[in-house]
Design a protein that fits this description.
By secondary structure, the protein is of the alpha/beta class. The protein is built from 11 helices and 14 strands. Helix 7 (about 205-220) links the parallel strand 7 and strand 8.
Amino acid sequence: MACTDIATALSHSTMEIQEPQLMPASDHRGVDAPRDAVSVSGLTKVYKASGRTPDKTALHAIDLKVPRGSLFALLGPNGAGKSTLINILAGLVRKSSGTASIWGYDIDKQTRMSRASIGVVPQELNIDPFFTPKELLELQAGLYGVPKKERRSEQILASLGLTDKAEAYTRTLSGGMRRRLMVAKAMVHRPPVLVLDEPTAGVDIELRQQLWSQVKELNEAGTTILLTTHYLEEAEELCDTIAIINHGRVIACEPKEQLLRRLDSKELLVEVDAALRVTPPELEAFSPELTAPNRLLFRYRASESPVAGILDALSRAGLTVVDLRTEEADLEDIFLQLTRGAHDAALTVPQEHVG
């Protein structure tokens, strides 16, 4: 997905004759701002048959809402339909049916306004090596029709730590700087919605932390962030709302904390001061696993919280606790359960959770 392709599509669109009024960042939280930054209803995409390849349905009548001001994660395995959805929102792919709106603007009826309301940072680096960062931002702003007096190229570069490279050829920039420049390109027209498609793929840990720090700042300033990533720990740490899509269907969409409670399991690993051959009778009710002569692993339902009883039983068995730690289900556990089609009742997706 190239930002320049999106901008070019915007500049050549004839479906809406009204010029987009680019909104300042302060308006992203205004009283007239919509409740949902992105709203999708019954969205379907069918890729028509070609040669011996049959029709392929990439999206099956999905419903999805991205709350205004959220840091929203869209997760799913490869081929789940994430890129198709983003491309439809960006105007690069035509939907087969259903509706979609960005910042309250229908992507079909208010094409220019909807495209002016979104910025897309693609996974691929599509930067002209013979332009400077400042020249690239000026070009991108021109493609979006931003008047020269309203352009913020230097301000955007400063916010992303690129001021000292503003006049350097982009071919001389490091990989991390190029990633930040991609974010800068997507922000030239002040979109209230920013899509980040695998922004940290292939980058080192330090750069990843820098990028996420800057993304958090953008979100805190009022920009709604829609993130796709295969790094589930990032989504769990950063995002407040998470949707999971699989085989073209939304199988979960809810606040992160609510989603993490779906898998009601927890582990308690206890290290004691004695070497054990068998489990003491006092602990049999909890069915621990003896993972080492002095280590006991207890598995239990987080909602039951039997830790006090376990510690009391350890005391009655004459064992002294040297160390203990707990582990509970994380986003990766839930993601794997849902995408593998688990039928556990605790992971059943109620209708109200979807969309």
